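Worked Example 4.2. Read the sequence first, then its structure tokens.
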Amino acid sequence: MTDPETRDRLIAAARQAARHAHAPYSRFAVGAAALLTDGTIVMGANVENASYGLSLCAETVAIATASAAGRLADIVAIGVVGGMMDAGSAAQGTDPVRPCGRCRQVLNEAAQLGGRDLDVWCGGITGDRIEAHRLSALLPHSFGPADLGL
């Protein structure tokens, strides 16, 4: 697992990203921060759409940002936080938020391309309770590039 200092940097970056969530329908802000092999952190926030199926999860936005920089295979860890937004659009919540199934699959693609398991740190928008997971535990028996012979 990544060290506590790196975990704290990831959670802080994810909380910063969550402030930019566009979540007018669910009112649930999510932020994600992906750590790359050189220590760079790329962030993402959820972006909802009136056509709900077109909404983007924060983790997917962070992964796409890394990919756009040519760094998809360089992801080693991700921090994810979330919480309900109040009337002033500030998010609150101390319960850890975990990636949805779709995001676990998107993360798995990056993990397999990089030849590694990912550390997944999950927290709330506020509070000190942080969960540590390995992607392989969150998505056992995964399907990825190797299953296609790639």
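Now turn to a second chain, presented in exactly the same format:
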Amino acid sequence: MHRKKKIIIAAAATLVIGAGSAFAYWSTTGSGSGSGATAAGASSLAIAQTSTIADLHPGDSAQTISGTVTNNATNSAYVNSITVSIASVTQAQNATGTCDATDYTLTSPSMTVATDVAAGGSANFTGATIKFNDKATTNQDGCKGATVNLAYSSN
């Protein structure tokens, strides 16, 4: 029986030692990295004038400029403002004299939109005005029938 007791004690010791090694571990440190991609934010805004500007002439009243900005991109786009400028003036075919951008006055050319325009969405703008600049001491016959070409930009 003494031998049986030794075997039981040896078996118990093996269990204790084995159990101790089951909890052993190596400590270490590590590092890593990762990334995420942000869309480039493709810009595809279309700006269209919706107001009709007609019959500009000496002594007339200022006419309001308004329009719509449409977001044709697949992502939303924040439109802070729309700015209008005179790109050029096209004289009528038989006009005599000269006519250029100085013959017209734009007032408040920057129109606030301050809108996040969703993909496929649109927003309106208004507020700028255009008027014929009556140069009292200058013959402005070159402006008869002229077309004022306006340009729009956004930011």
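Notes for the reader: Residues 4 and 108 are 106 Å apart (CA to CA). The first helix runs from residue 2 to 22.
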